[in-house]
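User: Hey, quick favor. My workstation is busy. Could you predict this chain's structure for me?
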Amino acid sequence: MKLTARIILVLVLCTILVFAAFNSTLVTIDALFGDMTLPLGVALVGFFALGSLAGSVGLYLAVVLRLKRDLRRTRASGP
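Assistant: No problem, here it is.
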């Protein structure tokens, strides 16, 4: 199982590297704190990673914390 997960991870990372390499056109991103000029592939992969991180944090806050609270209440009421 660990070997399969590592192989999949390596394939995903290789795919990301190839994607970034083939999308090397420079783009300018205007943000509140200034302008950034990045290759298109790097910008897309970076913003995908930021979106995944934001989704993970949102999922944790919405689901995991609620389940922990429910478990704490269940243990406190006990038998």
